[in-house]
Design brief:
This protein is an alpha/beta fold and 295 residues long. The chain contains 14 helices and six strands.
């Protein structure tokens, strides 16, 4: 299966079907059939008639807006996000000790940060905490592209400025530990960590950044957008400037990959293959970690 099925701005047939499966039956069970029909028509039109340039995160944003407008449905992730931030903060002392005793703390920090990308309520609506903890525990043994890892670590060591695009709650704690190791390897580097500009699913915002102490190792800003990922046309100028001016951009998660792939070789994408399409495209087992240089 060609790589452009996930890097193209146009939705692939698999992504389109996944969107429809997720949203067509999302209205309340007791919805009158005429209202349900109206809702389904709006969903179908949004997917079928939207500009081909819209990425999956942008279309998902529009579909959630229809749910909110018609039925007032909008899941509140406040407590869930606080819980996962606290859960992963509880791992920080032991992970700090593991990194301190590691032969390559930066390498281990990258792997732990990748494992944290498991925290995503999009695919199933839930997160298996036991599996998350196991992925973090086993992260040192994660099979990755070693050539890509070596290049990423070399670029980190020589960068003057790094923009770090965060993704999910909880995961952002492990991103913080990675930023700490980056500053240890390269004390002169300036790191800008970017979070979402408003609540969107379980993505990290300024509230999460404050809770986990992200500002200890980076200048933290928000992107001014409530769309998952980093859509250049939808984020604020501060974010666009950071992306333009940094020597290296470290981009976490599938939504950031879907919205930024193909936009420059100074970007490294870190994510887990969490859906069937990515598993098939890369021909890897589910939840395989990916370290990919942009093009």
């Amino acid at each position: 299966m060609p790589l452009d099925e996930i890097t193209s701005a146009s939705l692939s047939p698999r992504c389109m079907r996944c969107m429809l499966d997720k949203f067509l039956d999302s209205c309340p069970e007791n919805t009158p059939w005429r209202t349900r029909t109206d809702y389904m028509r709006r969903v179908l039109r949004t997917v079928a008639e939207g500009p081909e340039s819209l990425t999956a995160p942008e279309i998902g944003h529009e579909l959630r807006a229809i749910l909110r407008e018609m039925f007032g449905i909008e899941r509140d992730f406040t407590e869930i996000k606080r819980h996962f931030n606290e859960l992963v903060l509880g791992l920080e002392p032991q992970l700090t000790a593991r990194m301190a005793s590691s032969d390559d703390p930066l390498d281990l920090a990258i792997r732990c940060s990748l494992a944290g990308n498991f925290i995503d309520f999009g695919p199933t609506g839930d997160v298996d905490e036991a599996k998350l903890l196991q992925l973090v525990e086993d992260s040192a043994h994660m099979e990755l592209d070693e050539e890509a890892m070596a290049d990423l670590k070399a670029r980190i060591a020589h960068a003057h400025s790094i923009t770090f695009l965060t993704d999910n709650c909880g995961e952002v704690v492990l991103d913080k530990l990675l930023m700490r190791e980056i500053t240890r390897v390269n004390p002169a580097v300036q790191i800008t960590a970017i979070v979402r500009g408003a609540e969107t699913s379980n993505d990290a915002t300024m509230v999460d950044a404050r809770q986990v102490g992200l500002n200890a190792f980076a200048r933290v800003i928000h992107n001014g957008s409530d769309v998952a990922g980093t859509c250049p046309a939808r984020v604020n100028e501060q974010t666009r400037a950071a992306l333009r001016q940094s020597d290296l951009v470290i981009s976490k998660g599938l939504a950031n990959y879907e919205t930024l792939s193909g936009r420059g070789k100074n970007t490294y994408f870190l994510f887990l293959c969490k859906c069937a399409l990515y598993v098939e495209v890369f021909d890897v087992p589910p939840y395989t970690g990916m370290v990919m240089r942009g093009v």
